[in-house]
Design brief:
The chain is mainly alpha-helical. It has one domain (about 1-80). The chain has 2 helices and no strands. The longest helix has about 50 residues, at about 30-80. About 0% of the residues are buried. It comes from Brassica campestris (Field mustard). InterPro entries: Oberon_CC.
Length: about 80
Amino acid sequence: MVALDESIERLLHNSEVFLDRQCHTRGGEGSRVYVAIRFEEECASNYLIQRLTKAEAEKQYIFEKIKLKENFKDRITKRW
C-alpha cells in the first residue's frame, strides 16, 4: 500500500507542477484561469483521497472476511 500512496503523491505533485506552469503562462496567480484550475485540482484531489480511503476500507473488510473464513475452517477441521 505504501507504493500506491507514494505513486499517488508523486502523481499529484507532478500535476500540481504542471498546472502551476500552465497558470503562470496564462496570466499569473490572480487570474480567473488560475483560480478555476486550482479549484478543479483540489476537487479532484479530494475525490481521489476519498476513493483511496474507500478502497483501503474495502481491502480491510475483505481481509477480515477471509480471516474469519479461515478461522471457521480451522475450527471445523479440528472438531472432526
